[in-house]
Design brief:
By secondary structure, the chain is an alpha/beta fold. The chain contains seven helices and twelve strands. Strand 4 (51-55), helix 2 (61-69) and strand 5 form a beta-alpha-beta unit.
Length: 249
Amino acid sequence: MDGDSQNAGQDIELSLDAIKNVRILQRRKGYRFSIDALLLADFVNPKNPRHIVDLGAGSGIVGILLAQKYPTAFVHLIELQSCLYELANKNAALNNVTERLKIHNLDIKEIYDIISSNTFDLAVSNPPYRRLQSGELNPDDEKAAARHELNLTLDDLIKAAFYVLRGKGRFSFIYQTARFVEVIETLRAHKFEPRRIRFVYSNKKSEAKIFLIEAIKEGKAQLKLDPPFFVYDDNTGRYSPETLEILSV
């Protein structure tokens, strides 16, 4: 979901992209955020979360969108890759949210000694959801780590979310539909109860390849299926009205 790209300062390897009222610096040839991140930020809907954590923040797009969506919230971003961590810091400054963002250059599996438990109202993640044996690894290290489980498994992610969330806290993330059953089983193994699910389709004739899910830490069984999301309009082949609304174009 790249906007008009241009040189960022003197660094010809970066582009400056605009989504809604957010501007994001990202590498031209490295990992770049996709519509997954925008779908996730749009899917999140608690009324007034005060403490939010993004597990695997990349260049900061989701955390910054949520900081603007919830202007009284304080947001922590956890990112392992140093180059993306540095971009997240630049993007926080670029969007004037540095006072409400704390960015950690940290492996999610190592948060237990750094981040306090039972702290956050809301955890979000746009994690790598392809198994190592699923598909060809991208030769670019950033892209490979963002798409495949090189550094983080589903179990690692859900375990970390349980640790950081307070009781009845919400965990919202996006994942591959082929692993839907595994997601539900793993959530329940870690005392999360799925509360809300939305399947994402390219168009009305396609299969859902990804889905959004909200789970409640130590919650009661009470599942709601949101209406499906269609990225493209069948008649025009262009972005659907819902997609355009997310993109604000």
